[in-house]
């Protein structure tokens, strides 16, 4: 009991004082918007021996222009940061506060869950190491739209980590994040699914769903068009994460569909 108490005190102190680098990058201009950048490097230790530890590396862009506070708030709540600790908070917050809150909750979660496992079995310290990287970037798309891209890597034990690219398409005129319902006519869902899957057939050189499943795609799943997409000038790219619809070896899967193939369901 005394040993566990000492460990908990030590772990709490290390979490509070662990390695941390903070910086605010210079403002950049993309599509007539001013973007700021936050960089946070944080190491959360559970012991003084260097392992186990959680390492966070965040590069987060946000819009500095007035009127985009809700967009910034939504960007960091909707799948960019994993786990999504911020979704349940109803009040709008700044990017700086959101990132700092995320780091604090991540540290508390890691300390609570992995600290308990480490106390019960300290002989496998390396198995409790965790990594999360999120690097965002912004890209001009078609007129009035900016692509906000988050490239993430998450490792929490197991044989490998998971890579993901999450894209949010920002309507700079209406000042909101576009959803599929903003781009497609009502009742688009079934036709969009067919178009995306047909493009995947073409990309993979197969002619049927059965052949696609023989290659490990959509095994045990009904085919679907992901809601994670990037609007381009002449196309829309649908992006599936590592292990989402195919084996890990396939990595991130991009299905690029030209606007001409989407004719009839695009608004």
How do the helices and strands line up, and which of them pair or pack?
Blueprint: H1 2-17, E1 20-30, E2 33-45, E3 53-63, H2 69-75, H3 95-120, E4 130-140, E5 145-155, E6 162-171, E7 176-177, H4 180-183, H5 189-204, H6 209-214, E8 229-231, E9 235-240, E10 253-258
Parallel strand pairs: 3-4
Antiparallel strand pairs: 1-2, 2-3, 4-5, 5-6, 6-7, 8-9, 9-10
From the N-terminal CA to the C-terminal CA, the straight-line distance is: 65 Å
* SSE arrangement, N to C: HEEEHHEEEEHHHEEE
Strand order of the largest sheet: 1-2-3-4-5-6-7
Instruction: Report the structural category.
Output: alpha+beta
Beta fraction: 25-35%
Q: What low-confidence regions span 5 or more consecutive residues with pLDDT below 50?
A: 1-18
The helical percent reads 25-40%
Shape call: flat
For the biggest sheet, the summary is: 7 strands, mixed
Mean pLDDT across the residues is 89
How many strand units?
10
Task: Give the C-alpha Rg.
Answer: 21 Å
State the helix count. Answer: 6
What does the model show?
The protein has 267 residues and is of the alpha+beta class. Helices cover 28% and strands 31% of the residues. The strands form two sheets. It has a seven-stranded mixed β-sheet with strand order 1-2-3-4-5-6-7, covered by helices on one side. A three-stranded antiparallel β-sheet has the order 8-9-10. Helix 1 (2-17) packs antiparallel against helix 3. It is flat, with a radius of gyration of 21 Å. The model is unreliable at 1-18 (pLDDT under 50).
């Amino acid at each position: 009991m005394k040993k566990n108490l000492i460990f908990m005190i030590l772990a709490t102190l290390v979490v509070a004082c662990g390695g941390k680098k903070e910086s605010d990058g210079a403002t950049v201009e993309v599509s007539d918007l001013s973007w700021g950048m936050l960089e946070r490097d944080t190491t959360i230790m559970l012991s003084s021996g260097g392992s186990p530890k959680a390492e966070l590396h965040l590069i987060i862009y946000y819009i500095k222009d007035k009127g985009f506070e809700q967009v910034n708030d939504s960007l960091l709540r909707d799948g960019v940061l994993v786990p999504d600790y911020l979704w349940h908070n109803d009040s709008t917050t700044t990017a700086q506060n959101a990132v700092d809150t995320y780091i604090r909750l991540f540290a508390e979660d890691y300390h609570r869950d992995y600290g308990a496992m480490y106390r019960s079995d300290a002989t496998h310290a390396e198995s409790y190491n965790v990594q999360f990287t999120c690097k965002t970037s912004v890209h001009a798309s078609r007129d009035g739209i900016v692509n906000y891209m988050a490239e993430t890597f998450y490792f929490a034990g197991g044989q490998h980590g998971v890579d993901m690219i999450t894209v949010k398409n920002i309507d700079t005129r209406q000042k909101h994040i576009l959803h599929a319902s903003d781009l497609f006519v009502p009742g688009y869902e079934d036709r969009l699914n067919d178009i995306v899957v047909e493009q995947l057939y073409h990309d993979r050189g197969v002619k049927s769903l059965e052949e696609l499943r023989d290659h490990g795609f959509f095994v045990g799943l009904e085919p679907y068009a992901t809601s994670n997409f990037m609007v381009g000038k002449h196309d829309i790219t649908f992006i599936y994460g590592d292990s989402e619809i195919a084996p890990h070896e396939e990595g991130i899967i991009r299905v690029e569909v030209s606007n001409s193939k989407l004719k009839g369901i695009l608004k």
